[in-house]
C-alpha cells in the first residue's frame, strides 16, 4: 500500500464537521469545546491540521492571540494554544510536534511575545520549547465556622456582571498572567467555563467567588481592597457551598497574608502546594522576561479565561 502523505494546513469551514468528530473522540468529557472554538473569529487561519491523502484530519492544534498582563506592568499579545488532539490511530507519528512548529511560526509572524497553554501531559510540549511553571494553591479541611454561608453573598445573576467586571478589573489591574477581559469574554467565555455545576456567588457590590463543588475548588475570587470585610463573607460562603464542615477545600487563587489570615479562621490542617499545568514558551520575548511573568508573586491565570 502506498504510504500516506500528510499535509499541514490551516482549516476552512468545510473542516468543521471532521474537526468536531476528532475532538469528540479526543475530549469525550468536553462536548462543548466546538462552541468555544466557534467564538474565535479568526479560528480558521489559526486552526492547524495534519491531513492525509484521503482528506482525513489526523491531528489539530488551535492557537489564538490573547491580551495577558506581564510582570513589567504592560500587556503582551500571547499565543494561547488549545484543543490539541490527534486521532487515536495517528498518535506517536510527530503530527502534533510538526503542527506546533507551524503554530510557532504563525505566532512569530503575528507578533506574539510568548505562548501559553495548560496541559496534564506537559511532555507533549516540552520538546517543542514550552516550559512548565508552578501555580500556588492552598488546601485545608473546613471547620465548624463554615456550617452556614453569609447573608451578604448570593448566587450571581446576569445583572451582576457589570459590577463583577469592575471589581475584577481593579483586583487584577497589575496582576501578571491575568487576561484583560473584554465585554465578549464576560458575555460568553466567563459563563462558558463557569456553567453549572460551577457556582458564582456575589455581593451586592460585585465582589464575587467562583467554586467547583465537583472538585472542591475555589477557582476565582475578586474582592475590592476597599471592602476587606467582604473577603471573609465570600470565603465563608464558598467553603459552605463546597460542603461545609469536614470538606477538603482547595483554593486556586493567589495566596497573600490577608487570605491566609481569613482562611485560617475557616479551615484546619491548612497546607500550601503547587500545580504544574501551565506551560509557557518565548516567541518574540526572551525567556527571562516570560519566566518573570509566569512566576511573579500573585500571578494567576483564572480558569474563566481558559481557551
Ligand atoms: C496528547 C496527544 C495530542 C499527542 O499526540 P501525538 O500525535 O502522539 O503527538 P506527537 O507524535 O506529535 O508527539 C509530540 C510529543 O509528545 C510526546 N507525547 C505524546 N504523547 C504523550 C503523552 N501521553 N505524554 C507525554 N508525552 C507525550 C511525544 O513523545 C513527542 O515528544 P517530542 O516532541 O519531545 O518528541 C494525543 O495523544 C491526544 O490527542 N490525546 C488526547 C487529547 C489530549 O490529551 N490532548 C492534549 C490536551 S493538552
Provide the descriptors you would attach to this structure in a database record.
Aminopeptidase, binds coenzyme A, 29% strand, 307 residues, elongated, 2 domains, alpha+beta, twelve-stranded mixed sheet, 12 strands
Description:
The radius of gyration is 21 Å and the shape is elongated. The chain has helices spanning 16-26, 33-37, 43-46, 95-110, 123-126, 161-171, 183-193, 228-241, 257-264, 287-294, and strands at residues 7-10, 47-51, 57-69, 75-86, 114-118, 131-142, 154-155, 199-202, 208-212, 217-222, 248-251, 267-282. The model has no long low-confidence stretch (mean pLDDT 97). A twelve-stranded mixed β-sheet has the order 1-2-3-4-5-12-6-11-10-9-8-7, sandwiched between helices. The protein is built from ten helices and twelve strands. By secondary structure, the chain is an alpha+beta fold. The chain has two domains: 7-135 and 276-305, Gcn5-related N-acetyltransferase (GNAT) (Aminopeptidase); 137-274, Gcn5-related N-acetyltransferase (GNAT) (Aminopeptidase, 3-Layer(aba) Sandwich). The protein binds coenzyme A.
Amino acid at each position: 500500500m502506498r504510504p500516506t502523505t500528510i499535509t499541514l494546513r490551516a482549516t476552512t469551514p468545510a473542516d468543521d464537521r471532521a474537526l468536531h468528530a476528532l475532538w469528540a473522540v479526543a475530549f469525550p468529557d468536553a462536548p462543548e469545546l466546538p462552541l468555544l472554538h466557534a467564538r474565535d473569529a479568526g479560528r480558521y487561519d489559526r486552526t492547524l491540521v495534519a491531513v492525509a491523502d484521503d482528506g482525513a484530519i489526523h491531528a489539530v492544534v488551535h492557537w489564538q492571540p490573547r491580551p495577558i498582563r506581564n510582570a513589567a506592568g504592560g500587556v503582551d499579545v500571547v499565543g494561547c494554544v488549545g484543543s490539541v488532539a490527534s486521532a487515536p490511530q495517528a498518535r506517536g507519528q510527530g503530527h502534533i510536534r510538526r503542527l506546533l512548529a507551524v503554530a510557532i511560526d504563525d505566532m512569530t509572524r503575528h507578533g506574539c511575545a510568548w505562548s501559553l497553554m495548560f496541559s496534564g501531559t506537559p511532555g507533549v510540549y516540552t520538546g517543542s520549547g514550552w516550559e512548565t511553571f508552578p501555580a500556588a494553591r492552598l488546601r485545608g479541611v473546613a471547620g465548624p465556622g463554615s456550617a452556614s454561608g453569609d447573608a451578604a453573598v448570593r448566587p450571581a445573576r446576569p445583572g451582576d456582571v457589570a459590577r463583577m467586571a469592575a471589581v475584577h478589573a481593579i483586583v487584577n489591574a497589575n496582576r501578571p498572567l491575568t487576561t484583560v477581559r473584554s465585554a465578549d469574554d464576560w458575555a460568553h467565555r466567563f459563563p462558558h467555563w463557569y456553567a453549572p455545576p460551577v457556582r458564582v456567588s456575589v455581593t451586592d457590590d460585585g465582589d464575587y467567588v467562583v467554586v467547583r463543588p465537583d472538585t472542591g475548588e475555589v477557582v476565582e475570587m475578586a474582592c475590592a481592597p476597599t471592602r476587606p470585610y467582604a473577603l471573609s463573607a465570600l470565603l465563608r460562603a464558598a467553603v459552605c457551598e463546597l460542603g461545609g464542615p469536614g470538606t477538603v477545600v482547595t483554593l486556586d487563587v493567589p495566596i497573600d497574608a490577608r487570605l491566609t489570615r481569613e482562611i485560617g479562621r475557616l479551615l484546619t490542617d491548612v497546607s500550601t502546594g503547587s500545580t504544574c499545568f501551565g506551560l509557557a514558551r518565548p516567541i518574540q520575548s526572551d525567556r527571562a522576561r516570560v519566566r518573570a511573568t509566569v512566576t511573579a508573586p500573585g500571578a494567576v491565570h483564572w480558569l474563566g479565561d481558559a481557551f
